[in-house]
Structures are given as structure tokens and as C-alpha cells.
Write a structure and sequence with these properties.
Blueprint: H1 3-14, E1 17-23, E2 35-42, H2 45-57, E3 62-64, E4 71-73, E5 78-85, E6 92-96, E7 99-103, H3 108-117, E8 120-121, H4 133-139, E9 142-143, E10 146-147, H5 148-151, E11 152-158, E12 164-168, H6 181-184, E13 187-194, E14 196-197, H7 200-217, E15 224-227, H8 237-243, E16 250-251, E17 254-256, E18 263-266, H9 272-290, E19 299-301
Parallel strand pairs: 2-5, 3-5, 4-19
Antiparallel strand pairs: 1-2, 6-7, 7-13, 8-14, 9-10, 11-12, 11-13, 15-18, 16-17, 17-18
The structure holds flavin-adenine dinucleotide (FAD).
């Protein structure tokens, strides 16, 4: 048995769900990406702690994944373990009248619906962001005037040393599409949101309005990873790209969306290389013609990228 098969057996004995040689294109909203050696789902804190201990002791490369909606995975895949949170990490519960606790594996959209069911306002901005709660904390996801940092009271995370700690909002280093988790190697396991009592009808209307605006403006019918570039100071990436006549520009199966120039869509069998080539072409053109350096918001991960 090779070391990957041995590791797969060990994770299964811990109770984790394990997929070997798993195509990442099945787990990313871009529908792009080669195989992960091991795609492991930890369903309980105990499984998670045991799995991380094994990974550390055996020096196995590790990558966390949420819902795969901000990732561009290499065509060569990902070596080692891709770790995802399932089971009890998808629970959402009420802590008190205005506070909810969400496992990091829960979808942000589920957290928004839970808040609505309890007439709690504050999370409406996040309705339609297709990531997990953990991914939202990691990215400080935001939209329509709101950001995760505005409502996250604290995050529970597992440190690389295997310790569960609680990080208060002020210590999360939240900034535009960035948090301390972007650099710390900590795995977010839970986020507590502080919301306010609101009117369910009004909350629902706002969520529907936001979803409607997304459907009108964003190419959500095609695979993508959302906005490719961060918003440059004083500009909008989509407008700059459009002004450079790059709307519809296509390399292989990757295309600058004809609906929203800030998105790259997979119009059929796009590879990671297609997307990276298109990203480089956009960056070069916008820098040359507009003098603005566009920085990627999507995270290119895996072998050789
Ligand atoms: C159609 C579409 C629309 C989008 N609209 C928006 C938008 O309006 N606003 C916005 O901000 N984003 C948007 N996004 C991007 C994306 O949904 C967000 O960035 C989201 O927060 C990513 O969450 P995820 O769970 O999918 O993370 P993933 O893509 O799985 O991971 C992203 C990064 O977070 C890390 N990570 C994930 N989970 C954890 C965890 N528990 N602990 C530590 N690290 C973790 C991963 O290692 C990776 O580096 C959009 C994407 C799509 C496809």
C-alpha cells in the first residue's frame, strides 16, 4: 500500500469521508481542476482533530476548502489532502435573541435563511454569495454595502498546533477580501454572528431584491468563481475591462462574461491554464491602456500555480 492509500485507510478509521484521486472540477463552482490525491470530509471535532494530527505527524500537504466558489484549481490537481468540513460543522443554531452560531461548513445562504426565519436582520447582504460560512470569514466576503466583518462577533478556529481558539472580531484583521485566516494557517470551524431584531417581511424583501439584482447583472447561469479581480481603489474592475474592449474575449473555454466583465466564465471545458492566460491578458491590457494594476480576488491553488 502506498502512503496515500495508507492515509485514506487511517482517515476512514477516524470516521471521515474519503475520496481518492478526486476530480476537483466536481467541487468548484468554476468546474475546473485536476484531481486531489485525497478529498477528506471531517464531520465532527474529534475527527477533525485526529485528521489534522495525522496530517501533521506524516507531513502531508494540506489545503482547506469550503464550497469551492472562490478557487481556481490547477489542471494538475492538488497533492496531499484537501480538507472540507461536513456533518456537525454545518449546524446553525440560536445562541440568544439576536445571536446565531454557524458551523463553518454551513452555506452562507443557509445562514441568511436561518436569520430570516428568526426575523433577524444584518445578513441580507450575503444572500446569494455561494460560499460557506468558513470561506466567508476567510475572505471577509461582502456585497451590496455589507461585509462579513460587520456581523461576525467572533470566529472559532483550529490552530496549526491543534488547539481550538476563539478569535474576537477585532483580532480577525478583517480587511477588503482579507482576514487573519488568509495568512495564519488556522481553520475556521465556527462563526458567531451578532444580528438585530427586524421585520421578517422587510428582511425577505431585501433578500429577494439582492438576489434579483444578482440574477440581472451576474452570469450565474454559467460556471465561474465570481468577481475575478479585487476592486481597484477609485475604479471598478468590470468597467475598466469593458472600456478596454475585452468583453467576450475568449481563450480556450474561458471567456470574459458578456453579461458582467468582472467575471470570467467557463463556456465549456475551460482549463486552469485558459483562465490564467485570460487573467494575464486582461491584466496586461488594463495596465497598458488604463494604467491600473488589477489584483486577483480568486485564489489559484494546486500543483504548479
Ligand atoms: C456566482 C458567484 C458570485 C459571487 N459573489 C460574491 C460576492 O458578492 N461577494 C464576495 O465576497 N464573494 C463572492 N463570490 C466569491 C465566493 O463565493 C466568496 O469568496 C466565498 O466567501 C468563498 O467561500 P467558499 O466556502 O466557497 O470558499 P472556497 O472557495 O472553498 O475557499 C476560498 C479560500 O478560503 C479558504 N477556506 C475556505 N474555508 C475555510 C475555513 N473553514 N477555514 C480556513 N480557510 C478556509 C480556502 O482554503 C481558500 O483559500 C462569488 C462567487 C460566485 C461563483
Amino acid at each position: 500500500m502506498n502512503s496515500i492509500e495508507t492515509a485514506a485507510c487511517a482517515f476512514r478509521e477516524m470516521g471521515c469521508d474519503v475520496l481518492c484521486n478526486e476530480p476537483m472540477k466536481l467541487h468548484t463552482s468554476f468546474k475546473i481542476g485536476g484531481c486531489a490525491d485525497l478529498y477528506v470530509t471531517a464531520n465532527t471535532k474529534e475527527q477533525l482533530a485526529c485528521a489534522l494530527d495525522y496530517i501533521k505527524k506524516n507531513d502531508i500537504p494540506l489545503m482547506f476548502v469550503g464550497n469551492g466558489t472562490n478557487m481556481l484549481v490547477s489542471d494538475k490537481g492538488i497533492r496531499g489532502v484537501v480538507l472540507r468540513l461536513g456533518g456537525e460543522f454545518c449546524d446553525i443554531s440560536l445562541v440568544d435573541d439576536t445571536t446565531i452560531r454557524c458551523g463553518a461548513g454551513a452555506l452562507l445562504v443557509a445562514a441568511c435563511r436561518f436569520a430570516l426565519e428568526h426575523s433577524l436582520t444584518g445578513l441580507e447582504f450575503a444572500y446569494g454569495i455561494p460560499g460557506s460560512v468558513g470561506g466567508a470569514a476567510f475572505m471577509n466576503a461582502g456585497a451590496y454595502g455589507g461585509e462579513t466583518k460587520d456581523v461576525a462577533l467572533c470566529c472559532e478556529c483550529l490552530t496549526p498546533n491543534g488547539e481550538f481558539i476563539t478569535v474576537e472580531n477585532k483580532d480577525c484583521d478583517f480587511a477588503y477580501r482579507h482576514s487573519r485566516f488568509s495568512d495564519s494557517g488556522e481553520l475556521v470551524t465556527e462563526v458567531t454572528f451578532k444580528l438585530e431584531k427586524g421585520n421578517a417581511e422587510e428582511i425577505k424583501a431585501q433578500m429577494e431584491d439582492i438576489m434579483g439584482r444578482r440574477k440581472d447583472k451576474q452570469p450565474i447561469e454559467l460556471p465561474s468563481a465570481g468577481s475575478v479581480f479585487k476592486r481597484p481603489e477609485g475604479y471598478f474592475a468590470g468597467a475598466l475591462i469593458q472600456e478596454c474592449d475585452l468583453k467576450g474575449c475568449t481563450i480556450g473555454g474561458a471567456q470574459v462574461s458578456t453579461k458582467h466583465s468582472g467575471f470570467i466564465v467557463n463556456i465549456g471545458d475551460a482549463t486552469c491554464s485558459d483562465v490564467l492566460d485570460l487573467v494575464a491578458h486582461i491584466q496586461d491590457t488594463v495596465l497598458r491602456e488604463k494604467g491600473v494594476q488589477l489584483e486577483c480576488e480568486i485564489r489559484a491553488v494546486g500543483d504548479g500555480v
